[in-house]
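@channel sequence for tomorrow's demo:
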Amino acid sequence: MINLIGTYECKADAKGRMMFSSAFKKQLSSVLQEGFVVKRAVFQPCLELYPMKEWNLMMEKINKLNRFNKKNNDFIRRFTAGVKMVELDASGRILIPKDLFEFAGIKKQVVMSSSVNIIEIWDKEKYEKAIDDASDDFADLAEEVMGNTSVDELS
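C-alpha cells (generated this afternoon):
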C-alpha cells in the first residue's frame, strides 16, 4: 500500500492539463509507468486520483460485492461513473477529462492533496473552503473517529 504525503498547488490550463507535483512523482516513482485512474469523489466536489495499483486493490474489494443486491449494483455504478485512465505526458502533466474537470469546478488554481493512498484534486478555492468549514468540527470528528481506538490498535 502506498502512503502519500503532502499538499501541493499547481495550475491547470484551458485544456485541463496540469503539472504533476514533483514531490508526488518521487513518491510514486515505482508505479508512474502503470498510469492512474481519476474519478469523482464520493463525499466532496473534488476528484480522486488512484495509482493503478491502488485502483486494482479497490476493484478487488468492489468485485466481491453481490451484484444481485440492488444497493450493491447501484453503488458500483455510481462509484465507477465517469472513471477515466490518465497518464503523465512527456512534459510531466496529466490531462483531466473535461467532464471531471467540470464536476470538480476546477478553474485555474489547483490543489493536489494526499489522502493516504490516493491524491485528491481540488479547485483551490473549494479546497480552502472545505478545510475552513471542517476546522470547527475537526476536534469532535477526531475524537469520534479515533477516540475509541487504543494505541495498540493503531500500531
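heads up for whoever presents: The longest helix spans residues 52-63.
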